[in-house]
């Protein structure tokens, strides 16, 4: 196997991880600040992708499409928070699971009703398409590099937001103690709506960015949602840093595993069965990683221990 | 060692226990013991580290240094559950009860674990005469027989405190750790609880954490005073009243002494 | 005194038996199939209800056990159809089309999976537990998709329904009665379990973990046993479900299946013995009638569920029998 192939998969893993981070960041904030599990986060990813695809087909502008994905997902998120989620903060996790599962049904079937079951397409803009040659002679799609860059910029922005701004102080205070933040005179319900909409916007952006690589269709958010959960379990609830580390770990493990495992299996098996067995195990690899981390650190890499 | 009153070692012994949370020294080299037949009160201002000490005795927290002994045997390696089974009965500062259960069911739970046979899947636990008798007897002793069939969420706060004690009774423990059993009882309630605890010491000694000084002085054979994670004095009521250190520590903080 | 809940229960079980009997005489096999589906899903729900209702364990991964049961049926039956042994070395294992053996295999393997998943995920609680059960569920789902030997994404067909000694399983009523008998037996077991020492301790651990630890029980052990029992029952339901449809596919393992099982347990009334039965019946009726009106019937299901969760906690049995939970 060539070094170039490995480097390519590392970049793929980074790109995948960065996307997962955008999903996981919002989820982990909502967990940390509001103590809420939101299964419908994947629906916001889908909303972002659909909004981007529609605006791109109207205007032809990819930048406007991305802006639309942010706006649409943030609006959908804020509405979701005000109409339903707000009633769930004081409920137990079971009620939160059920209500947000119900929201998934409403969003998914509603989208299918309006747009049908056929996927929409969102094209990579000309100025980002095609490969670039990296140092060392690796050819790599420019668009995927752009995703990595956007993701890392957003990660930095989030760290800045949490650690340096007034909102960030309020978010951190809210994680520590719900009553304390009320005592500080902060309008809690406004803060909660804001945090929720912020998480939604990130999910929507992730949906739009990925939508240009894959197709835009109903249910696209759900596999990503579950992977984002794996990321949070690995990184620890409420930790943005944990979400970033967890997301990159999951992304790299998944992509490298799918390349290396069949080859490792080929050392002890005949080639054809090594390919299938390797692929089977590779599909389970990140969950095995999660199980291992659970055994060693039940509250995640950066989680506060119970 | 058939009669605990004649045993050489104390029922419970805490030896040089220390525990820090970061820069906060919640327990500093604490030693105390609980002898058969006595009520030993642990007093001290809020934040002195009483709850931290109790948790290290029950096994909820692991001390950084030091040792806890039950009847002369170290129990440091034992889990909270194993310590309970060895005879550590406790009541909580904030009632920890199954609120959807009836009062009787809560008591039966205690009796069930003490007797054994939790992993039975077919017998009807509330028709188990032995368990129900044991539970009813405990409820009767704390004065809850009349509300045995009520939902725990529907009884009064004071009755829940009594139920805490009743559950500890069903376990027939070797000693009781009681974390503020008088809290929120009201005057009449704490008086009857005081009478009851006084009679209980013959069954098993009590380590009593309590803020109600009337109750402490009515009950305690010995008192230990905990301030800033340190025991500054242990002795009889007379000795504690006269202790200079105690007066200094409490001066201006609590006039009750 | 007979409580309202017990009268409801009796009415439900009699209705569930009477409708297929009527349909058999009226020659309406489709109705029998619907009733069988209700019975099997109810069984899966009774399994989940032990973990969820008594133990308070919000598992979003019960589709794993449902699917393992389904694949036990599919795999054993497919080997019986082709006469190819499952395993040749070190000893020969043949496929089978005998339901009792298939059920045993389904129960054993789903219990094993529950033991492993439970042992890991019960180390955590709260949202972690939900996410981890969901994630392990997804792992099995992807594994089934990539397992090309047994159909991969396309699933596995069972040409002829498996056999049960003394019955003709091809007659819809016979197969219904087999499922119904199993449901009754498991309901009886679940009722005993809820009142047994184990049920008391498990329910106490749900309400107050501190309390059970202080009296000397390890909640982890209680929950793990409950999770295994729960998974095994759901696995048995999966085996029957595969035989009903004569088909298994990875969709049995998908997290939507986990969500749906949970939904109808909640619609019926969580922690109620007959909650899953009522819930499954309502779910199937909604699917049948709303599905007849609109292809997008799950929008209404979602709305219905939202209303129940936000405004009508306690489910249908709760509304019929009052909020008081029965206890001796």
Describe this structure in words.
The complex is a heterotrimer of chains A (306), B (257) and C (328). Chain A is an all-alpha fold and 306 residues long. Chain A has eleven helices and two strands; from the N terminus they run H-H-H-H-E-E-H-H-H-H-H-H-H. In chain A, helix 9 crosses helix 10 and helix 9 (221-235) packs across helix 11. The mean pLDDT of chain A is 89. Chain B has two domains: 1-87 and 173-257, Rossmann fold, CATH 3.40.50; 100-172, no CATH class. Chain B has helices spanning 50-58, 80-85, 103-115, 129-142, 157-170, 186-200, 213-219, 237-242, 244-250, and strands spanning 12-21, 24-34, 39-43, 65-70, 73-74, 88-91, 175-179, 206-209, 222-227, 230-235. In chain B, strand 4 and strand 5 form a beta hairpin. In chain B, helix 3 (103-115) crosses helix 4, helix 3 packs parallel to helix 5 and helix 4 (129-142) crosses helix 5. Chain B starts with 11 loop residues before the first strand and ends in a 7-residue tail after the last helix. With 328 residues, chain C is mainly α. Chain C has one domain (4-321). Chain C is built from 13 helices and two strands. Residues 324-328 of chain C have low confidence and may be disordered. The interface between A and C is large, with 43 and 45 residues.
Give a quick precis of the structure:
The complex is a heterotrimer of chains A (306), B (257) and C (328). With 257 residues, chain B is an alpha/beta fold.
What's the story with the biggest beta sheet of chain B? Answer: 6 strands, mixed
| Sequence stretches where pLDDT stays below 50 over 5 or more residues of chain C | 324-328
Helical residues, percent of chain C = over 70%
Strand order of the largest sheet of chain B: 6-7-8-3-9-10
CATH topology of the largest domain in chain B: Rossmann fold
The assembly state of the depicted protein chains is: heterotrimer
């Amino acid at each position: 196997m060539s070094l170039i192939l490995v480097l390519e998969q590392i970049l793929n893993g980074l790109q995948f991880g960065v996307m997962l981070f955008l999903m996981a960041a919002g989820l982990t904030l909502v967990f940390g600040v509001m103590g809420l599990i939101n299964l419908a986060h994947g629906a916001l990813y889908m909303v972002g992708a659909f909004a981007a695809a529609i605006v791109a087909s109207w205007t032809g502008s990819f930048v406007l499409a991305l802006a639309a994905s942010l706006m649409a997902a943030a609006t959908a998120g804020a509405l979701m928070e005000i109409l339903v989620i707000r009633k769930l903060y004081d409920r137990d996790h079971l009620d939160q699971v059920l209500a947000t599962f119900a929201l998934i049904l409403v969003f998914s079937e509603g989208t299918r009703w309006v747009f049908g079951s056929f996927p929409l397409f969102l094209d990579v803009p000309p100025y980002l398409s095609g490969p670039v040659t990296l140092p060392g002679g690796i050819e790599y799609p420019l668009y995927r590099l752009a995703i990595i860059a956007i993701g890392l910029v957003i990660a930095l922005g989030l760290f800045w937001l949490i650690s340096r701004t007034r909102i960030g102080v309020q978010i951190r205070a809210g994680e520590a103690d719900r009553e304390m933040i009320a005592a500080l005179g902060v309008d809690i319900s406004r803060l909660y709506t804001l945090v929720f909409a912020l998480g939604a916007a990130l999910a929507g952006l992730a949906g739009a960015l990925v939508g240009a690589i894959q197709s835009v269709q109903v249910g696209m958010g759900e596999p990503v949602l579950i992977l984002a959960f794996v990321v949070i379990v690995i990184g620890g609830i409420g930790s943005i840093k944990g979400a970033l580390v967890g997301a990159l770990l999951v992304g790299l493990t998944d992509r490298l595993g799918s390349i290396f495992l069949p080859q490792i299996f080929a050392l002890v098996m005949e080639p054809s069965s090594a390919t299938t067995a390797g692929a089977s195990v590779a599909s389970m690899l990140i969950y095995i990683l999660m199980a291992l981390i659970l055994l060693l650190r039940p509250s995640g890499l950066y989680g506060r221990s119970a | 060692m058939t009669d605990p009153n004649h045993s050489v070692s104390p029922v419970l012994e805490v030896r040089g226990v220390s525990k820090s949370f970061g820069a906060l020294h919640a327990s500093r080299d604490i030693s105390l013991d609980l002898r058969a037949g006595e009520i030993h009160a642990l007093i001290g201002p809020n934040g002195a580290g009483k709850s931290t000490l109790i948790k290290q005795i029950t096994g909820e927290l692991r001390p950084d240094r030091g040792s806890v002994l039950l009847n002369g045997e170290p129990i440091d390696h034992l889990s909270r559950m194993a310590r309970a089974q060895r005879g550590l009965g406790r009541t909580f500062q904030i009632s920890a009860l199954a609120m959807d259960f009836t009062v009787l069911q809560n008591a039966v739970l205690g009796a069930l674990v003490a007797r054994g046979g939790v992993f039975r899947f077919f017998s009807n636990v509330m028709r188990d005469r032995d368990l129900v008798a044991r539970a009813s007897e405990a409820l009767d002793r704390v004065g809850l027989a009349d509300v045995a069939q009520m939902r725990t969420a529907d009884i009064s706060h004071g009755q829940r405190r009594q139920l805490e004690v009743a559950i500890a009774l069903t376990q027939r423990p070797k000693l009781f750790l009681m974390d503020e059993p008088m809290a929120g009882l009201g005057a009449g309630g704490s008086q009857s609880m005081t009478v009851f605890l006084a009679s209980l010491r013959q069954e098993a000694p009590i380590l009593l954490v309590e803020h109600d000084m009337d109750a402490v002085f009515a009950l305690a054979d010995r008192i230990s005073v905990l301030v800033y994670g340190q025991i500054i004095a242990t002795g009889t009521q007379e000795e504690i009243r006269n202790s200079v250190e105690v007066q200094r520590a409490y001066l201006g903080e609590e006039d009750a002494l | 005194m007979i409580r309202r809940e017990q009268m409801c229960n009796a009415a439900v079980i009699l209705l569930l038996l009477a409708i297929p009997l009527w349909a058999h005489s009226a020659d309406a096999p489709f109705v029998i199939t619907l009733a069988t589906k209700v019975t099997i899903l109810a069984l899966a729900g009774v399994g989940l209800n032990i973990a969820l209702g008594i133990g308070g364990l919000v598992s979003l991964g019960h589709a794993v056990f449902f699917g393992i049961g389904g694949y036990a049926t599919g795999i054993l039956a497919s080997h019986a159809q082709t006469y190819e042994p499952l395993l040749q070395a070190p000893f020969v294992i043949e496929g089978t089309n005998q339901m009792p053996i298939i059920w045993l295999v389904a129960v054993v393997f789903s219990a094993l999976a529950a033991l492993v998943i439970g042992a890991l995920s019960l180390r955590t609680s709260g949202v972690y537990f939900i996410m981890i059960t969901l994630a392990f569920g997804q792992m099995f789902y992807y594994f089934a998709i990539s397992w090309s030997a047994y159909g991969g994404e396309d699933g596995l067909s069972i040409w002829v329904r498996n056999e049960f000694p003394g019955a003709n399983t091809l007659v819809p009523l016979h197969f219904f009665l087999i499922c119904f008998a199993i449901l009754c037996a498991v309901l009886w077991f679940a009722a005993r379990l809820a009142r047994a020492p184990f049920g008391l301790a498990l329910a106490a651990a749900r309400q107050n973990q501190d309390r059970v630890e202080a009296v000397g029980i390890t909640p982890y052990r209680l929950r793990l046993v409950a999770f295994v029992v729960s998974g095994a029952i759901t696995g048995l339901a999966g085996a029957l479900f595969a035989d009903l449809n004569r088909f298994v596919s990875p969709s049995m393992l998908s997290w939507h299946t986990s969500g749906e099982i949970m939904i109808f347990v909640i619609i019926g009334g969580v922690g109620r013995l007959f909650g899953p039965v009522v819930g499954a019946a309502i779910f199937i009726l909604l699917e049948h009638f709303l599905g007849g009106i609109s292809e997008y019937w799950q929008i209404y299901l979602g709305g219905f569920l939202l209303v129940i969760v936000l405004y009508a906690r306690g489910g249908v049995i709760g509304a019929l029998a009052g909020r008081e939970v029965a206890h001796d």
